[in-house]
Amino acid sequence: MDETQLWHQHHLASWLRLAATLRTEGWETQVTCTAAPVQVDGALPNGERFYFRARHSDVSLGIGGDDPADIPEWEASEPHQEASYLPAVDGEAIIRRLARRYLEEHRH
Fold it and tell me: Cβ(24)–Cβ(98) under 8 Å?
């Protein structure tokens, strides 16, 4: 196995571990792509559907709406220099930060 294959195998495994960790916290998660762009979708612990995407130099989280990947009710993003190949450790910090921001803005 060459270096690129090893990197991709490690990258995929780290995203799958993150998805499993989030599921233990009540999230529904599915990693649909791990590179160019990184994509995860599912539902937050409160049941609201989300779509997380990292592409080029932007990482975004869309929540709610009929299709959060297309026209979410709420969306926020953060810059990241290598978003298309976002490491799961960076992705975890960003998805948690943006989800927390959403929940803080939508408390009643």
Answer: no
Beta strands per DSSP E along 1-108: 28-34, 38-43, 49-55, 58-63, 74-79
Tokens for 29, please give them: 């998660």
In this prediction the pTM is: 0.95
Q: Given pLDDT bands bounded at 50, 70 and 90, which one contains residue 108? A: low
Predicted confidence at residue 1, as pLDDT, reads 81
**Would you place residue 107 in the very low, low, confident or very high pLDDT band (cuts 50, 70, 90)?**
confident
Separation between Cα atoms, residue 23 and residue 42, nearest integer Å: 10
Q: Helix (H, G, I), strand (E, B), or coil: what is residue 52? A: strand
Dihedrals phi, psi of 87, to nearest 5 degrees: -65, 145
Task: Please name which of 27, 17, 18, 16 lies closest in space to residue 63, comparing C-alpha atoms.
Answer: 27
Q: Positive or negative, the Cα torsion across 58, 93, 95, 108? A: negative
DSSP helix/strand/coil, 70:
coil
